[in-house]
Amino acid sequence: MSIAYWCVLVAAVLPYLWAVVAKAARPGYNNRNPRAWAAKSNDYLVQRAHAAHLNAFEAFAPFAAGVVLAQLAGVDAQTVNGLALAFVAFRVLHGLFYVADKPPLRSLAWLGGIACALALIVLAALRAG
């Protein structure tokens, strides 16, 4: 199960990766009010990287809950690890596609990631039920 736990750690760090990309994309980053700086930016790369940052936070909770619930319910470790690895891969792709301005691919990566998180939760519910 440790692979899935490492994936939770990677997923927890991913939002900060996209924040670094947003801040590095344009000189003049203002650390006094970073949210206003990103919101007022006219640079589409900054806006997309910031959106990837926010979306990565949104995706983390159901994934982390899914890993914990699946582990507690006794779902097969290989299944949990496989879904966790797939989730991380989809979320990395999601961020890359967001920054690269590839909306259809971004949406597919988002769908893959949320499907993995939901599968973990459903498998836990079925196993516990």
UniProtKB/TrEMBL annotation:
GO cellular component, one term: membrane
Subcellular locations according to the entry: Membrane
Segments traversing the membrane: 82-100, 107-126
Coiled coil region boundaries: none
Keywords, in A-Z order: Membrane, Transmembrane, Transmembrane helix
Main localization category: membrane
Name of protein: MAPEG family protein
Taxonomic lineage of the native organism: Bacteria, Pseudomonadati, Pseudomonadota, Gammaproteobacteria, Lysobacterales
